């Protein structure tokens, strides 16, 4: 828990500050980063490409067949071929080609769906795991709303990028090559020249304008993320907003973000309209040029009416997908940006990482859970050290308490023991093993904590207690709840253990949340326990009751107690008085009182303030 006077760490080896812009990656590099996730389904990719080519070949065949169908209609009335040839052959083939286009397209999507969804799932899971592996600093500094928006967009970008590239861009390019080849072989080369020149101008105009307006879209998305962050942050701090009657203030701040987003969105739409208008003008000019040349060919007798129909059909089939090229190109660029942001999260280095070849902690197997701090120094900022050459030992099965004023570094001891941060000097050992040389997972598995500020999942009471040991039976959960003196309260609620606790456990009082935290730590039953102001939210009567349960729970366990109320640590085997990051006194309760030093002063002061507790 972050105390007053403590600041977030900034050691030289830290990863970039969350939220800081990462090094810009090229679109090709982003695609290369995505490729291995898709290539995991390489055979599906190959079959999807084959089906896509088949669909485009069938699609190009439709105008050719339509040409022959129109030309066939020039037979004289009454000719027996009119009944046999046209309906039975050409019409049937025309229908089959139309059906084949749709069939191959659906087969492509069916085959590739597993690859798309599988790649999206693997990336999302990898990001989720990586975020949990990042340092405490990252999660204290992150902007939850903006980050979740980036992850959501990145996940959707996988689907959209594949859809736009594999289902729009690549098929259009294949069809373009086929059409230009047919026009060059069957007709005057000018048909291919006109089509090619028109497409070059069209693509150049689309890419240039889209690149110009990309920053409008990027600004719009950034402002949208800021508005989302503002809204989420305000809703998470709902009670604070109510305490200070600041609903209108929050609404005004949110509306300011929405207004900036609106202005950016209008600019984006205006530039999009300019793009669409320019595209339509280029399409109209090229269509007029192509049809003029085709009609002139029909008049001169070089081309048939079917050729004219075929050229027109080719142009329509080409320009319908190209008509959306600006949208598609913009969306692909945006998807690449969104995907890059999500990959950027994946590439954030872990500030605290397992050493190569690290083995699990042996405290569970060996039974030796002695905790030792050896000359430990630590600073969140180089100019302001928090711990200075701290050394102490918690023998296996014993309890050591740390007391002192706020900001003295008490909770930092717990953070370092959990390896949320690594010490800059000295060593921390559990069972004689340096915790930097074993896996973080095994260290945290060996430790249970009851924090001062308990945050619960928005789920049932039973889920939150069972979180201490997933897979625990209902009876084990009930036993832990009884030990934490919360069973009776749970059973008094209408739904019992199925009662939901609300966002961050806000439906429960501070004391109830703390007892849930105690219950799930008791259920975990680790060899090392940390009680960080474990009874601070309890009233005097419940505190005495819980103290006896905590004392029972910590029997034969290595226990570190961080306390402000000295009455809760009088039975500790040793008490450390921490001040300004240094241990200024140590000894038992009786020894420290007899010494008449800093501890005795704190005891006397608290006795005056709350004599009924002491």
Low-confidence stretches: 1-22
| Strand fraction | 5-15%
Task: Provide the CATH topology of the largest domain.
Answer: ABC transporter transmembrane region fold
Q: Write the CATH architecture name of the largest domain.
A: Up-down Bundle
Largest sheet: 6 strands, mixed
Distance between the termini: 26 Å
Can you tell me about this structure?
The two termini are 26 Å apart. This protein has helices at residues 27-39, 42-72, 81-84, 86-133, 136-141, 144-186, 189-236, 238-243, 247-300, 305-322, 325-346, 363-366, 410-417, 440-445, 461-466, 474-483, 487-492, 510-524, 540-553, 589-595, 598-609, and strands at residues 371-381, 384-394, 399-403, 425-430, 433-434, 447-450, 528-532, 558-563, 574-579, 582-587. The longest helix has 54 residues, at 247-300. β9 and β10 form a beta hairpin. Helix content is 62%, strand content 10%. The protein folds into three domains: 27-346, ABC transporter transmembrane region fold, CATH 1.20.1560.10; 354-446 and 529-536 and 559-614, P-loop containing nucleotide triphosphate hydrolases (Rossmann fold, 3-Layer(aba) Sandwich); 453-525, Rossmann fold, CATH 3.40.50.300. The chain is of the alpha/beta class and 614 residues long. Mean pLDDT is 76; it is low at 1-22. The strands form two sheets. Strands 6-7-8-3-9-10 form a six-stranded mixed beta sheet. Strands 2-1-4-5 form a four-stranded antiparallel beta sheet, covered by helices on one side. It contains 21 helices and ten strands. α4 (86-133) packs antiparallel against α6 (144-186) and α16 (474-483) packs across α18. The radius of gyration is 35 Å and the shape is elongated.
């Amino acid at each position: 828990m972050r105390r007053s006077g403590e600041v977030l760490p900034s050691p030289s080896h830290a990863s970039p500050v969350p939220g800081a812009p990462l090094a810009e990656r090229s679109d090709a590099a982003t695609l290369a980063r995505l490729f291995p996730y898709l290539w995991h389904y390489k055979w599906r990719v190959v079959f999807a490409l084959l089906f896509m080519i088949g669909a485009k070949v069938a699609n190009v065949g439709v105008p050719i067949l339509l040409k022959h169908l129109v030309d066939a209609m020039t037979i004289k009335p009454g000719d027996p071929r009119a009944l046999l040839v046209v309906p039975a052959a050409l019409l049937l083939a025309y229908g089959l080609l139309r059906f084949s286009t749709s069939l191959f397209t659906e087969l492509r999507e069916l085959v590739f769906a597993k690859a798309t969804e599988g790649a999206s799932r693997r990336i999302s899971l990898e990001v989720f795991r990586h975020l949990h592996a990042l340092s405490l600093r990252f999660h204290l500094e992150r902007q939850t709303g903006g980050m979740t928006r980036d992850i959501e967009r990145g996940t959707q970008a996988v689907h959209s990028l594949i859809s736009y590239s594999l289902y729009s861009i690549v098929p259009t390019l294949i069809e373009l090559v086929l059409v230009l080849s047919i026009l060059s072989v069957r007709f005057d080369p000018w048909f291919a020249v006109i089509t090619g020149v028109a497409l070059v101008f069209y693509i150049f105009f689309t890419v240039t304008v889209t690149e110009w307006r990309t920053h409008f879209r990027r600004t719009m998305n950034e402002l949208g993320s800021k508005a989302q962050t503002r809204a989420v942050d305000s809703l998470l701090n709902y009670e604070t907003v109510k305490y200070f009657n600041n609903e209108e203030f929050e609404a005004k701040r949110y509306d300011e973000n929405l207004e900036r987003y609106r202005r950016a969105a209008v600019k984006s739409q205006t530039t999009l309209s300019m793009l669409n208008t320019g595209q339509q003008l280029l399409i109209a000019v090229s269509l007029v040029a192509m049809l003029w040349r085709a009609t002139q060919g029909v008049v001169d007798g070089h081309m048939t009416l079917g050729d004219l129909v075929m050229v027109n059909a080719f142009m329509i089939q080409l320009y319908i997908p190209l008509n959306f090229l600006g949208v598609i190109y913009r969306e692909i660029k945006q998807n690449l940006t969104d995907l890059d942001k999500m990959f950027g999260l994946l590439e954030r280095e872990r500030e605290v990482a397992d050493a190569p070849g690290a083995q699990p902690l042996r405290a569970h197997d060996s039974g030796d859970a002695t905790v030792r701090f050896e000359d430990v120094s630590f600073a969140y900022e180089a100019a302001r050290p928090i711990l200075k050459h701290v050394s102490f030992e918690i023998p296996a099965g014993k309890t050591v308490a740390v007391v002192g004023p706020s900001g003295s570094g008490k909770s930092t001891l717990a953070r370092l023991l959990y390896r949320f941060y690594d010490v800059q000097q000295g060593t921390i050992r559990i069972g004689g093993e340096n915790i930097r040389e074993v896996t973080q997972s095994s260290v945290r598995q060996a430790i249970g904590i009851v924090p001062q500020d308990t945050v619960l999942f928005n789920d049932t009471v039973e889920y939150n207690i069972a979180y201490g040991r997933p897979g625990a039976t209902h009876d084990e959960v009930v036993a832990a709840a009884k030990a934490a003196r919360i069973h009776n309260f749970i059973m008094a609620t209408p739904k019992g253990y199925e009662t939901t606790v609300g966002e961050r456990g806000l439906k429960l009082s501070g004391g109830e949340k703390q007892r849930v935290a105690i219950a799930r730590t008791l259920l975990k039953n680790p060899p090392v326990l940390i009680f960080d102001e474990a009874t601070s939210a309890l009233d005097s009567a419940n505190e005495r009751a819980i103290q006896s349960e905590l004392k029972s729970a910590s029997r034969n366990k290595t226990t570190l107690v961080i306390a402000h109320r000295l009455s809760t640590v009088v039975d500790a085997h040793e008490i450390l008085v921490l001040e300004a990051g240094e241990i200024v006194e140590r000894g038992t309760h009786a020894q420290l009182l007899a010494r008449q030093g800093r501890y005795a002063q704190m005891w006397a002061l608290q006795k005056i303030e709350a004599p009924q507790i002491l």
